[in-house]
Amino acid sequence: MCAFLTLLLLTLINFAASELIEDPEIICGRQNVKISMKMGQPFKGHVFVRGHYNDPRCHRNFTNQSDMMTPEMDIDFDHCTMRRKRQTNPKGMSMGSVVVVSYHQNFITRRDRAFEVECFYLEESKIVKSDMIVSHLPTTEMMVKPIMPDCNYVVRKENPDDKIASLGDLLIHEWSCHGPAQQLYCMQVHTCTVDDGENAMHQIIDSFGCSLEELVMSNVHYAGDLSASTKSYAFKLPDSSHLYFSCQVQITLKENHNGTCPRQSCDSRTRSKRSLRSDTTVFSSSVLVLDVEDTQKMAIHAHACPLNLTFLVSSLVVIIAQSATIVYLLSRRAAKF
């Protein structure tokens, strides 16, 4: 599942003014839903799931409390027979039931209110809303959309302070996602590309998350549900020293709340079956890679001046010696005549 969406449909009675001063607050969890209310005056009634009045796990009695201004109730998905429905368009699963707030000990009166509470776990980024009438009372629609995990991509050397790489240096690629309720999600890295910022992109990780160029980058390894890494050796594209990496990160909702994330093998390269997914593109900062001769350039320049001076001095000594020899020979020849 790619997104976690809580859809609340509230059913209101229009016959008389209610003692509720605002709409109830709904919190949908992994195994239950919690409903909290604020009253304008002390509440001495009942809050129960329709059809489960006699079940103490699905019914709360406040008739003996004299100062209850904020009644609350936790509804367990398993004990209170929450309606479960899996949809294909949009894909997802909904958990719903009707909660009745009654001010009378034995009867449903026109003062009472009924709320249809539905938690909908949606896979797509688009939100589709629909009215669902499951009682004789009109409904008011409310929606809550939680925040998806944020993901980032870092390429670094073994020493994080070293920002420049030479050809053949070991590079570490790290992907991680963080956010609320992150224990519900799985992550898979796939479709990675590299370019120099100007020319065409080159794909190095395929859509299954497997390396296409193992000499350039190895297969991705997962250290946790929302963290992964791999290693590569620094390389270059022709006529450029900068590399730009980008990858797709797939976020899925676990089938089981406390289950493990499925990891497919790159040997078979068969996509594992996923129910709900969302893909996000993450980019690394640019990587500067120097040629071998570039890394030696400073040393060569440092010795250039001393070598030229030595050569000049040697040349002058040779010229002086040759000149002295010529003068000596000329003087000997002149003496003979």
Automatic annotation (TrEMBL):
<feature type="signal peptide">
    <location>
        <begin position="1"/>
        <end position="18"/>
    </location>
</feature>
<dbReference type="GO" id="GO:0042302">
    <property type="term" value="F:structural constituent of cuticle"/>
</dbReference>
<feature type="transmembrane region" description="Helical">
    <location>
        <begin position="309"/>
        <end position="330"/>
    </location>
</feature>
<dbReference type="InterPro" id="IPR001507">
    <property type="entry name" value="ZP_dom"/>
</dbReference>
<keyword id="KW-1133">Transmembrane helix</keyword>
<dbReference type="InterPro" id="IPR051962">
    <property type="entry name" value="Cuticlin"/>
</dbReference>
<keyword id="KW-0812">Transmembrane</keyword>
<keyword id="KW-0193">Cuticle</keyword>
<dbReference type="Pfam" id="PF25057">
    <property type="entry name" value="CUT_N"/>
</dbReference>
<keyword id="KW-0732">Signal</keyword>
<dbReference type="InterPro" id="IPR056953">
    <property type="entry name" value="CUT_N"/>
</dbReference>
<dbReference type="GO" id="GO:0005886">
    <property type="term" value="C:plasma membrane"/>
</dbReference>
<dbReference type="InterPro" id="IPR057475">
    <property type="entry name" value="CUT_C"/>
</dbReference>
<keyword id="KW-0472">Membrane</keyword>
<dbReference type="InterPro" id="IPR042235">
    <property type="entry name" value="ZP-C_dom"/>
</dbReference>
<feature type="domain" description="ZP">
    <location>
        <begin position="27"/>
        <end position="268"/>
    </location>
</feature>
<protein>
    <submittedName>
        <fullName>ZP domain-containing protein</fullName>
    </submittedName>
</protein>
<dbReference type="Pfam" id="PF25301">
    <property type="entry name" value="CUT_C"/>
</dbReference>
<keyword id="KW-1003">Cell membrane</keyword>
